[in-house]
Amino acid sequence: MKKLLSTLLLASAFLCGVVYADDKPANMTLKMATTTSTENSGLLTDLLPKFEKESGYSIQVIAVGTGKALKMGEDGDVDVVLVHAPAAEKEFVEKGYGDKRYPVMYNDFIVLGPDADPAGVRDTKTAPESFAKIAEKQAIFISRGDDSGTDKKEKQLWETAGIKPAGDWYREAGQGMGKVIQMAGELEGYTLADRGTWLAGVDKSPLKIVHEGDKDLFNPYGVIAVSQTRYPDINHTGAQAFIDWIVSAKGQQAIADFKINGTPLFTPNADKPATAK
Amino acid sequence: MDALIDASLKALHLLFSGDMALWEIVGISFRVSLLALLIATPPAVLLAFVLAYGNFPGRRLIIALFSTLLSVPTVVIGLTLYLILSRQGPLGEWHLLFTQNAMIIGQIALAFPMLVSIGHSALQAADRRAWETARTLGASHLRALLTIIYEVRFGLLAAVLASFGRIISEVGASMMLGGNILHHTRNIPTAIALETSKGEFAQGIALGMVLLVMAATLNVLLHHFQGKGFVGS
């Protein structure tokens, strides 16, 4: 027992010393809640080291659905949020949880489905029309069902189509985008996906894009610093430094430069409204 | 089948090509779980001892309570602690959420009931006379306690290893409390969950292999310590 204990002690002492050396002062560390799409697509892995190198900040990313990311911001558990659900973001700022929403970039949503396209979605002109077709044919549809930005968009499209999706064909997965694309692939079903996650995993999926390119499917991303008025001890300076960087020419160029197999995943659009503090 | 073999081969390559990212995740996993176990074990064993040797009202209820806690899903422990540690919660001031310390707290909460439950069974099986003899021979309370612990060391070791198995492999609490932050709170189970969601199965399998190899090592170690731990005459 003694021997084992000392072995354990030694081993843990070793691990503590060797593996983990987080000596950054707290105010140089920044916590960001963001969506699975920015993380799973590989964008942040590409972007953040550049920001860290230039600013000296160390940024910690928690990737969850947009709904949960905003909740973390509301609770003051993170310093900054990078999400894609304009309506929810507006509410977040209006309720005083965040200072201001800065547009960062956009891509678009796409409807994915099996190559055989049993519901005939390829013939439709708009996304709500595609959804109506899927519902009519009762083709399997995998929903995120996790209150993420994509989930919110999907619900909105069903509403536009005037359909309350229910039944054995409509399956709520409650999982991230990558997982849902896999599930739709395995079950030969349809799903709504963001283009970034799709492009990042396209070579692993049997699905095809069956509908794309209408204005209903626009997918803008915004960044918001959590309110310092509400949470005085939050790392607001760090959050603002990150926002300033990502909307700057350098940050925007880095987004534009991020490509998978030569295809850019996101289009920067910070320059549209005024971004000055 | 091809997919499985393919992913496994890639996993082996990752493991032995000295992929730093992967080994960092392994390091975080072990650091968190070992620290949690080190902190939880002494008080848990003491409590188990009190439950086995003490005679006070509510004793059985406490034992039943700890056995019940064994069945609580890890995400429920995670969620409860999340609400406590969140900025909105009672301990929000401490800023622990999404840190390794939060994960350690979560794993202590998971390991503690198991240590108490199995530890209690082990201590209960010891001969009460060992305690009485030690005391009669003039041993202090502490000395007598150590004697008992030594008597049932294999049972306690099993409790420690079983608890380690539970916390090193759990994903629910670590995901909620740590937030799966790269370089900070991404451990083996949360990394497997993430890689799987991205369709990076090779990375997931590689991490799974590490976990298995470590578990095997621990068990071999246990057998080594047990030595001649068979029922002799």
UniProtKB/TrEMBL annotation, chain B:
CDD domains hit by this protein: TM_PBP2
Superkingdom of this protein's organism: Bacteria
Subcellular location: Cell membrane
Major localisation: membrane
Keywords, sorted A to Z: Membrane, Transmembrane, Transmembrane helix, Transport
Keyword flag Transmembrane helix: yes
Chain segments annotated as transmembrane: 32-54, 61-84, 104-123, 144-168, 201-222
PROSITE patterns assigned to the protein according to its UniProt record, in alphabetical order: ABC_TM1
Residue ranges constituting the ABC transmembrane type-1 domain according to the UniProt record: 26-222
Membrane-topology descriptor: Multi-pass membrane protein
Family statement drawn from the similarity comment of this UniProt entry: Belongs to the binding-protein-dependent transport system permease family.
Protein's recorded name: ABC transporter permease
Species of origin: Thiothrix litoralis
